[in-house]
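Objective 1b: paired records.
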Amino acid sequence: MDEGIGTKEVLEVIKAKKINISVITLLFTFLSIIYCLKIAVPIYEYNALIRIPAGIESKQVNSLVEILKNDIKPDYMLEDKYNKLTKVNLLRDTSLIKITWEGTSPKEAESQGLIYTNNAMERIDKIIVLEQKKEWENSAFWIIEKDLENIKYNFADNNINESLSFLENEIQLQKKEMFFQKAELIKSSYVLDRPVRPQILFSVIGTFFFSLILSSTFFIGKYYIKNNR
């Protein structure tokens, strides 16, 4: 009957093979350090917050977020897979859109991220204006504006025109408030000199313990198989 392997035997195997286990563990840890410092491409992260005007409905805000999310492409579709848009999120219970851009240097991440952010705000503004134009044309103010234009055109009377000037000014104020709402960049983060990837300390410690466990398991398993044939 197979009784497995006891704790005492496990400790004896580890003690007997401690040099082998140490060499394997240190070798993989050293390779991890080499990979992080010499091979892996350092990735830096730029973050920005765009505020959508308060008058925009949440449904439209969500639609704007989805439009920007379409700019996130898989690596095989990109000319440069290391400098790219990685995240577009709507912060919970706000009208703030968070944009995350990655680059291979702090300068690259910040400059390219800022270019994309400004471009995104221009696109958002165009969409907002189109929606506002539709709302304006369906509002009573638009009807009044057209009626005033017809009155001024058909009745060339200075007294009438002066009387209508107040209404025209009020309508223009309403129009300005509606059409001059724009997306606003409220935060453009400073890109740290330390890359977000690879995380050298985490990678080295993780590799050390993984190699230690894996090599120990290998020799224990080998001992078990040998003694249970």
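Objective 1b, second protein:
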Amino acid sequence: MTPARTPAPSGAASRDAVPSDADLEARTAIQPRTRRGAETKAKIFSAAERTFAEQGYHAASVSRITERAGVGQGTFYLYFTSKLDLFEQLVVDLNRRVRKAMSDGAARGRSRAESEREGFREFFAFTAEHPALYRVVREAEQVSPGAMRLHYERIVDGYREGLTRARDSGEIGAEVDPEVAAWALMGIGEMIGMRYVLWPTGESASGTYGADARSVPEDVFEQMVALVQRALGTPADVPPPAPAGPPPGAP
């Protein structure tokens, strides 16, 4: 069992402190030692994801989150020191999962053009399944700027590395700056996702944030992919030619 932690004080200083990247890394690196512990922490993350999305950080309470997760408040403090600690770790957890989805998608590509397509496809699928990603990360700008910055920088780090390799191998234009392109492409994905995944659903009749969200419509997706390909100077990813038929006159 994970050792119990002392809850953080509830004063303004604890709420307003901006965590360093190293502090966030250290806290999120601590994992439960048992499978049961990992499952309990995952249940708390899931409940927090929905509660923060529906109520916002300030209105959400630890008691509401633990009730939803089906655990006691004492159990909560085995894994998190405070509501703020949970919020920051949730940002990191969502970031880890969305990056994995994008990476798995990109790995299916046989070229940079295909990797871009499949990476974006998985990003939009993830955001449709987890619309809270948008609200949580945007609220982090006020609640925990360090966590918000870490979220975006981690995505850009992996993106920049892939674009650098693609430029060196001639798969994208030699004039493309991987750093600038990584930030620009991330912005494209976030805004397209917000417009076509999140906004059409808004608040459902039951008040559930992002309920019934669907991935980006295919025609919008293709327009976006074509724009990205032109910006990067990648050839369009066309399907392989069909096998050749028998020569003319063959029996």
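The CA atoms of residues 121 and 133 lie 16 Å apart. Residues 83-107 form the longest helix (25 residues).
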